[in-house]
């Protein structure tokens, strides 16, 4: 035994056969507690296993590295295990095409998500698009759902929230809600704050709002689309995007846009301003103008 000869405990080391050639084809896959393996991404490389280090770096200036690396981090943050199967190949590109063709008949692959130009794209927007795609993958678990075409994520990525650019004053919104206190059309929705990972810049949670099923119908939502809503958190009015998974889960995404000035904002920061964080329950109250006001569930 190597441990006996070197007087060292290797029990926490992984082992691999030393490669003979640099050209490889590989499949990244993820699994949950049940052990079910779901293919994630198929690739090839002329640099052997060194290619995997690029995914750890996940630089935005290298779109494929960013896409795969961020996907791995997202899945790991959700409790999935991500592993790699690889083999040396004399026809790496041909084998990659063949494997993709076979796997995508049944399972959605990250290869299908449209790339981007890092010089003309926004990092947070691309991350949000990626997370939306991965949400579908984690729901399907390797079984492509009928009615979802392979081009759907590309179409969704090109959608733009079309809302008015007019400024909405928070005091007017709150007065509108108070004046409608006796209005039977007023809607109250409950949900909770979840996290889909960690921002690398400051280690804060990438927060989203998961809406309870019994109140979800009060929000505009359609599977595969981002539906815009007006949302007030604290003293600031935002535009937010509402999504729905194939399983019918309705959620509000992590990226907001301030109605005044159109400046982008993060949901985690807006929630932090009113003392809310991951795991907290929230309430959305819809006023007479159709604007949702967010507060903690314990508040009146």
Question: What features would you describe in this structure?
Answer:
This protein is α+β, with helices and mostly antiparallel strands. It has 2 domains: 14-157, no CATH class; 170-296, At1g16640 B3 domain (Beta Barrel). 27% of the residues lie in helices and 27% in strands. The strands form 2 sheets. A 7-stranded mixed β-barrel has the order 4-5-8-7-6-12-11.
Structure at a glance:
The protein has helices spanning 2-6, 51-57, 63-77, 92-103, 123-140, 152-157, 170-179, 267-273; strands at 24-31, 37-45, 81-88, 187-198, 205-211, 227-233, 236-244, 250-252, 255-258, 264-266, 281-286, 292-296. With 300 residues, it is an alpha+beta fold.
Q: Roughly what fraction of the amino acids lie in strands?
A: 25-35%
Shape: elongated
**How many beta-strand segments?**
12
How many domains make up the 3D coordinates? 2
Return Rg in Å.
Answer: 23 Å
* SS class: alpha+beta
For the biggest sheet, the summary is: 7 strands, mixed, barrel
Helix proportion: 25-40%
């Amino acid at each position: 035994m190597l441990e006996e000869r070197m007087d060292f405990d290797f029990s926490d080391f992984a082992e691999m056969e030393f490669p003979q050639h640099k050209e490889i084809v590989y499949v990244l896959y993820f699994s949950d507690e049940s052990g079910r393996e779901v293919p994630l991404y198929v690739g090839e490389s002329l640099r052997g296993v060194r290619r995997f280090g690029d995914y750890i770096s996940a630089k935005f200036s290298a779109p494929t590295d960013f896409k795969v690396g961020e996907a791995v981090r997202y899945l790991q943050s959700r409790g999935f295990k991500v592993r790699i199967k690889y083999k040396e190949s004399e026809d790496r590109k041909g084998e990659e095409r063949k494997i993709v063709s076979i796997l995508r008949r049944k399972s959605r692959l990250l290869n299908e998500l449209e790339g981007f130009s890092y010089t003309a794209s926004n990092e947070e927007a691309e991350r949000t698009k990626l997370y939306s795609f991965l949400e579908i993958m984690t729901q399907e678990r390797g079984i492509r759902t009928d009615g979802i075409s392979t081009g759907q994520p590309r179409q969704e990525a090109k959608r733009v929230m079309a809302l008015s650019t007019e400024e909405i004053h928070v005091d007017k919104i709150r007065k509108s809600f108070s004046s409608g206190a006796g209005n039977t059309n007023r809607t109250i929705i409950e949900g909770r704050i979840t996290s889909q990972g960690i921002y690398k810049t400051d280690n804060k949670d990438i927060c989203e709002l998961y809406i309870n099923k019994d109140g979800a119908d009060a929000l505009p939502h359609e599977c595969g689309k981002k539906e815009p809503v007006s949302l007030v958190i604290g003293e600031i009015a935002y535009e937010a995007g509402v999504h729905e998974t194939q399983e019918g889960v309705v959620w509000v995404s992590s990226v907001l846009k301030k109605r005044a000035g159109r400046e982008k904002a993060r949901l985690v920061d807006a929630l932090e301003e009113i003392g809310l964080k991951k795991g907290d329950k929230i309430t959305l109250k819809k006023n007479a103008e159709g604007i949702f006001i967010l507060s903690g569930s314990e508040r009146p």
